[in-house]
Amino acid sequence: MDMELNADQQALVDATEQLLGEFKEAPRSGAMYAYSAELQQRLAAGDFASVSLQSEYGALEAALIVEVLSRAPYAVECGASVLVAPAVLYETLPGPIALVEDWQRPARFLSVARHAFIRDQGGGVLMTVESDAVETAPGMLAYPYGRFKRVPEWSRGRRLSAQQSQALLQWWRTSIALEAAAAMGAATRFTVDYVTNRRQFGRPIGSFQAIQHRLARGTVHSEGARLIALEAAAKGDALTSTLAATYVSRFIGETVEDMHQFNGALGITLDHPLHYWTYRLLALQSELGGLSQHSRAAADVLWSEASEVTVPSGPSAYWDLGW
To answer: What was the pLDDT predicted at 323?
Structure first.
């Protein structure tokens, strides 16, 4: 089962595919990651960041853009600028935008960012990123990473309200779940193509039933992640967001392990393009914070909602609450 796009949504997806152009093909340069400033500029020039604020579109349409871009082997900052910032601020910001959990730690896209959302104990702060305030951080997780050289000047930032800080966390989860689902799907499709053409024992290795079963399972996981992430964007609620984050956290590790195994472990080396998706998945898994964290967050939302209604009694109580 899949969602059927309407004409406007399909046109938006087609426009995003066209935006990618030559960046749909994986580079074979042996680089740790593939980031293109040109592709980032194309995204900004196309005014895709304003899609969710347009009357005929919304967050679901913005999520479709993020999904298409996140399937590409080239890492481009799209989740924060296209989905998160408009949902939190009801306005657009020039990208790239970094989402920073802790200013003392490296963050994705911070080395190239123009703005950064920084979460702290007091909520969230939006900062303009000065080029001399950050430095490139070395890493192997298929994204450009950066870190602050010194403590940010908090007084120059824009402190988010409590409601905006909560929205930042929610849409941050949704964005990462969406990016991860797209990378899971791209890695799976790449692997299906590989096992279809790679021959061993006189036959394509994809003809072996054990491989077919595990690839089918991987397809189910990536499509399930995609659909629940799109649902989280469409609904815009905290529960579906946490469930999307929980789902991808559960299956990222299994996807990475299986896809590397079926590619003969070639994706571990940089001369094979699988790492453009799988190493990215490891980065997103780390940024999400772990399965237990989101499972607890989902439970908190469920029990909070349950406390506001009359709880049924008897053996069917849990099912009546939606469990």
So the answer is: 30
Query: In angstroms, rounded to a whole number, what is the distance separating the alpha carbons of residues 183 and 72?
Result: 8
Q: What is the DSSP letter of 22?
A: G
| Alpha helix (H) residue ranges in 137-274 | 162-197, 209-235, 238-262
Token digits of residue 308: 């506001």
| Whether 175 contacts 66, CB under 8 Å | yes
Token code pair at residue 74:
């080239």
Residues in the chain: 323
Strands (E), the chain: 97-100, 107-108, 115-120, 123-128, 134-137, 145-148, 158-159, 199-200, 203-204
- Token readout for 154 is 């908090």
pLDDT value at residue 267: 62
Distance set, CA 279 to CA 118, 183, 256, 257 (Å): 24, 10, 8, 11
Instruction: Quote the CA–CA distance of 71 and 43 in Å, as a whole number.
Output: 15
**How many Å apart are CA 110 and CA 103, to the nearest integer?**
10
Q: Locate 224 and state its tokens.
A: 């399930």
- On whether the CB atoms of residues 96 and 114 are closer than 8 A, the answer is yes
pTM of the predicted structure, to 2 decimals: 0.88
Residues whose CB falls within 8 Å of the CB of residue 181, separated by 6 or more in sequence, listed in order = 67, 222, 225, 226, 229, 248
Residue with tokens 């990378």: 183
Gap between the Cα atoms of 299 and 239, Å rounded: 9
Residue 254 CA to chain centroid, in angstroms?
Answer: 17
Split the chain (323 residues) into runs of 10 and give each run's mean pLDDT: 82 95 81 84 93 93 96 94 96 94 93 93 88 89 92 92 93 95 94 79 70 87 94 94 92 90 74 87 87 74 60 39 32
